[in-house]
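Lab notes, practical 5.
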Amino acid sequence: MTWTWATRLWGPPASGLTRARIRAAYAVAAATDILQFLLGPLGWVFADEILDVATMIVVSVLIGFHPLLLPTFVIEFVPVADLLPTWTGCVALLIAVRRRQVPPAEDDRSVPIDVKPTKVE
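Output from the prediction step:
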């Protein structure tokens, strides 16, 4: 698999997701949600924020960065919203999106054909 700037930025395609990566992403997301729930709505000073930053980085490394991670990251800064399992939900949604992406075939070198309408008599 060749890595381009796009695959480095947006993460691995659906074929790059392994069961181990998916399980690890779910484990990290669930652990973060549980810790944030145990810390309570106000949490400790910057503990929730540190957990959110670390979770976003780890999930991005495991299953690739996607813009869906950004709203989850921002929502976690709202005091009561961090009690919801937002990271676990985001990972589930992101994995579903990644699985729907079909990687292009490596030998597909098709060229688009431009067709101009002609009048047939």
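Observations recorded by the TA: The two ends are 50 Å apart (CA to CA). Helices lie at 5-10, 19-39, 47-63, 69-75, 86-100.
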